[in-house]
Amino acid sequence: MKEKKLENPIRQTIIEIKNLRKSFGDNDVLKGVNLSVKKGEDLVILGRSGSGKSITIKCLVGLIRPDEGEINVFGTDITKLNNKDLNETRARIGFLFQNGALYDSMTVRQNLAFTLKRHSGFLKSDEIEEAIIEVLQNVGLEEAINKMPAELSGGMRKRIGLARTLIVKPEIILYDEPTSGLDAITSREISGLILSIQKKHDTSSIIITHDMACAKLTRNRIMILKDGVIHAEGSYSELEKSKDKWVRSFFI
To answer: Which of 105, 136, 164, 209 has the fewest CB atoms within 10 Å, i.e. is most exposed?
Structure first.
């Protein structure tokens, strides 16, 4: 498989993290993380459990406050924003959680409508329904519109979770272990869906994953976290051939 390349290598930097540090008590999780993502780029972040991958993206949307560092999103350091301005920035970012985070008491339609109303309360009922149908078509699950989350398979829940993220038309999507707990075939389908969404909507994405098949398919670049800092960065093929045995261990 050929390396996926950006159509325009000098596109705008949409995310830039500088010297990000975060500790929990005596546990120094992030010790100076630096990374950037350009418009329309998919960045995969790898690392062992506890390396700080999920903490990094939670800091990126203000769910966790860093101890030090800058987090520039759309040209603004979000660590300096008040709650109102931070929420306005969050509205432009989609976050796909590991479990899809659907409301179990709502149908698929109600889950999607609730999210859309919360972000765009001025829409009419027919506009909401049109948006729901469109986004379900995008993830290939239009027939699941009246189902409850308990009636969905793990892969279907991931797709609906992605639909709920997409329905507000985010400019950035953060994926936290998008293929976790799925079989190989379903994982490949979800990875393909992530790639098609990036191409169709020109989103910028950060993908946290342990799934190397997902990393190989979806990435423009890969970064590997170790001991609280970015230990290695490059394309899949470059890192796979790294002289660093620890880096190569991810690709075995």
So the answer is: 105
Euclidean distance between CA atoms 91 and 54, whole angstroms: 19
Instruction: For 118, list phi and psi in degrees, rounded to 5.
Output: -65, -35
223, two tokens: 């970064």
> What domains, with CATH codes, occur in the chain?
12-92+172-252 (3.40.50.300), 101-169 (no CATH)
Spatial strand order in the sheet of 76-77: 27-38, 13-24, 68-73, 76-77
CA 166, chain centre distance (Å): 11
| Residue 43 identity | L
Top mean pLDDT of 50-54, 181-185, 198-202, 230-234 is at 230-234
Beta bridge partners of 21: 31, 68
